[in-house]
Design brief:
This protein is of the alpha/beta class and 295 residues long. The chain contains nine helices and ten strands.
């Protein structure tokens, strides 16, 4: 594939770019014209959740860059890197129709030299929950996000709430390493039945898809109990576990009721407290969360 392909099927003429140098030229021109730039990092196989991020980005900036990169550093040795769904042609069509200006889809060797010696490693904020379940995952995430921030130099970057621990860490990354980028966290987009949109939903067989709905039922029930006046963290967690038990074949990694800054468990929930969940449905690992007081 050529390094810089102009998509001409739609009037927007989105550019599909594989090389860092080819991306920097139009971004430099945008900055010269005084245009703000938004970055939407993804691993591709785009769905409406990703495209909602594009919509949010468009409200914040004149130029929208969407990256598609299945990042090998954030996958463990027994995870699904090789079978993670990929469809760059379909992604390009969806991105262009949604108004993306530049689609950055580099090959692995463009972002990572074979002799690379530097990574970005988080501190204690990554120790629990996803970090405990997937050792090294957030080092991979923060390393690639740091590279994208340096390559694109965006005014704003948009991430999804579904990956709430990732979003929290990226906000900390921007703050602690002094990136001049505003981090925007967009609401989770759900299927009509409540399942959070995810590229990994494609793995689910029909019966697994039905079982996976227990995640949303759990989150919704805990949120409704909070709205009804239950603030005790232990009681809310117990309610969640009772609902999860109705689908014994769903293997829960964690159910966490935590504060939004440090992601530490709370004794008393309040508005803004996060309820996060991760579980395996068959061979598929899903994550989801709600923010109490926000539904």
């Amino acid at each position: 594939m050529a390094a810089d392909i102009r998509m001409t099927t739609i009037a927007s003429s989105m550019r599909l770019i594989e090389k860092i140098a080819s991306l920097r030229a139009p971004l430099s021109e945008a900055r010269r014209r005084g245009q703000s730039i938004a970055l939407v990092p993804t691993m591709g196989y785009l769905h409406e959740g990703h495209l909602h991020l594009v919509d949010v980005a468009r409200r914040h900036a004149a130029v929208v860059v969407l990256s598609v990169f299945v990042n090998p550093l954030q996958f463990g040795p027994h995870e699904d890197f090789t079978r993670y769904p990929r469809d760059l042609e379909g992604d390009a069509m969806k991105a262009e129709r949604r108004g993306v200006d530049l689609l950055f889809a580099p090959p692995v060797e463009e972002l990572y030299a074979s002799d690379r010696t530097v990574a970005v490693t988080p501190l204690s904020l990554a120790d629990r929950w996803e970090g405990a379940a997937r050792p090294g995952h957030f080092t991979g995430v923060l390393t690639v996000v740091t590279k994208l921030f340096n390559i694109v130099q965006p005014t704003v970057a948009v991430f999804g709430q579904k990956d709430i621990q990732q979003a929290t860490l990226i906000k900390a990354l921007a703050r602690d390493l002094d990136f001049g980028v505003k981090i925007v966290i967009a609401n989770t987009v759900r299927e009509p039945d409540g399942l959070a949109m995810s590229s990994r939903n494609a793995y689910l067989a029909p019966e697994e898809r039905r079982r996976a709905l227990v995640l949303w039922r759990t989150l919704r029930a805990v949120s409704e109990a909070f709205d009804a006046g239950e603030y005790d963290g232990v009681e809310l967690e117990q309610l969640g576990w009772e609902i999860l038990a109705t689908e014994p074949e769903v293997q829960v990694d964690y159910l966490a009721i935590v504060d939004p800054q440090r992601l530490e468990p709370v004794a008393v929930a309040e508005q803004g407290t996060i309820v996060a969940i991760a579980a395996r449905v068959g061979g598929t690992r899903l994550i989801d969360n709600v923010i109490l007081g926000a539904l």
